[in-house]
């Protein structure tokens, strides 16, 4: 007797389609640009170091921080630019419009600057719905108002159908640096305390869940937010913050590796103190990812002197965007230039900079 073929159960979701995923670790001697060059990892660093820095070499650029700091007309300014190519354009907790504002505002904040003015450039693909562009523009304007910045100038270009991805956005921003502030990665020193402002890995998982149609039992909402108010609260406690960094592409691991290498210090993390929400931990376990490498868009890392750590942590926890702030490690004399995590089992593991990126196109 021939057994009937069972019909699919409509209550069981289709498995995710992994066929379109991009390998996050292409060969670094590739003669052409590959996705890994934009991932914020080792390939991005090599592209910048060996191609762009020699072409543009100057003392202002040499710091290679999130924003350049310089004096102009007697004022100390920070200046930054960023391009946003996220897919999908809209996601739980925000859109490319929110990202465009918050990403640049946060880059300026990581130098201790309060953003004042932004420029905005739209690159539109022929055929994209004007309603989509209008929604993004409205989100961008609302995000600017929320962050307390003015979109002062802009530009629009249209490319042929098939030569874009709907909408790309570029923003640049300028802001004033508070007097007495000297925030840069080279200031990290043994004994300094490492603080993160809240739960990590949320943005990257939110983007992946929508893009790949994967459900993790509950909706993961992006942490996209402007951090200038949080930084201002921290600077009210002490202007002697040593390092600030928003761990976007490449996540917490990449940002801490950049700090360790720039300062020539080691960094020890304590795994059990890392604030990782259960939804992110479960998603990373399912996808084979490490939360330390997943992007964030509304979190910051702070490296502060041990004598200031408690006061800074208290100020962060008193702010809505820092309620889950936690001390996650310290700078040490051992293993200079390396980041090491102490696991719950008492072992240690090196947390290296990724070659490419686990999750492409998240900002």
Automatic annotation (TrEMBL):
It comes from the Bacteria. Transmembrane segments: none annotated. InterPro entries: HypE, PurM-like_C_dom, PurM-like_C_sf, PurM-like_N, PurM-like_N_sf. Gene3D superfamilies: PurM-like C-terminal domain, PurM-like, N-terminal domain. Residues 190-335 form the PurM-like C-terminal domain. Residues 66-177 form the PurM-like N-terminal domain. GO terms for biological process: protein maturation. Belongs to the HypE family. NCBIfam families: hypE. This is Hydrogenase maturation carbamoyl dehydratase HypE. It comes from Kribbella amoyensis.
């Amino acid at each position: 007797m021939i057994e009937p073929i069972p019909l699919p159960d409509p209550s069981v979701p289709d498995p995710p389609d992994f066929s379109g995923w991009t390998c996050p670790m292409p060969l670094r001697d590739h003669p052409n640009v590959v996705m890994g060059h934009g991932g914020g990892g080792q390939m991005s660093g090599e592209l910048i170091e060996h191609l762009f820095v020699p072409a543009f070499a100057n003392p202002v650029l040499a710091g290679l921080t999130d924003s350049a700091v310089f004096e102009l007309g007697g004022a100390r300014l920070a200046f930054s630019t960023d391009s946003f190519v996220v897919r999908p354009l809209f996601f739980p907790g925000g859109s490319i419009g929110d990202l465009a504002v918050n990403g640049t505002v946060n880059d300026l904040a990581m130098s201790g600057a309060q953003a004042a003015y932004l420029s905005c450039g739209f690159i539109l693909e022929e055929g994209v719905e004007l309603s989509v562009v209008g929604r993004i523009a409205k989100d961008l304007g609302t995000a600017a108002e929320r962050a307390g910045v003015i979109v002062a100038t802009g530009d629009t270009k249209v490319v042929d159908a098939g030569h874009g991805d709907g909408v790309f956005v570029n923003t640049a921003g300028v802001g004033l640096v508070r007097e007495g502030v000297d925030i840069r990665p080279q200031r990290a020193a043994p004994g300094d305390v490492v603080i993160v402002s809240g739960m990590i890995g949320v943005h990257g998982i939110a983007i992946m869940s929508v893009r790949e149609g994967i459900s993790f039992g509950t909706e993961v909402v992006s942490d996209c937010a402007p951090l200038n108010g949080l930084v201002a609260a921290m600077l009210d406690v002490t202007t002697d913050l040593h390092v600030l960094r928003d761990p976007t592409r490449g996540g917490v691991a990449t940002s801490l590796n950049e700090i360790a290498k720039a300062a020539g210090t080691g960094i020890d993390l304590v795994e059990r103190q890392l604030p990782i929400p259960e939804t992110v931990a479960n998603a990373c376990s399912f996808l084979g990812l490490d939360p330390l490498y997943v992007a964030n868009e509304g979190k910051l890392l702070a490296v502060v002197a041990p004598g200031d750590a408690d006061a800074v942590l208290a100020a962060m926890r008193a702010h809505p965007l820092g309620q889950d702030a936690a001390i996650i490690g310290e700078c040490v004399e051992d293993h200079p230039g390396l980041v090491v995590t102490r696991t719950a089992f008492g072992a240690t593991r090196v947390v290296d900079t990724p070659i490419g990126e686990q999750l492409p196109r998240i900002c």
